[in-house]
């Protein structure tokens, strides 16, 4: 292999590596607890989306909620720094199509260099979802 071919391969590998790293934005692992009506949310998901209305950019982060706890490092992907919109879904059972404990709860946080632990208490006033009937109409 000549020098020109070697340089072309090196350049191609560098471009591919840069294109696969979320645009160069650093992700931060977030963790914490999620409660509803004073109890740990048994199962669910939590997502962290950059708040574009406040200048946030980058990819979304997410994690699974299990027994009221979440960690993006063990069951998801970290969040970018800056203003973030948090969406929380919770259910009593870890089954597909299980009824939600509450409608998607939405709140805002600021992810900064020193703050990676965030606990969320879904307000008791959040209306509960009523399961739909699966019978014939």
Automatic annotation (TrEMBL):
Q: Which PROSITE patterns match?
A: PROKAR_LIPOPROTEIN (PS51257)
State the protein's name: Uncharacterized protein
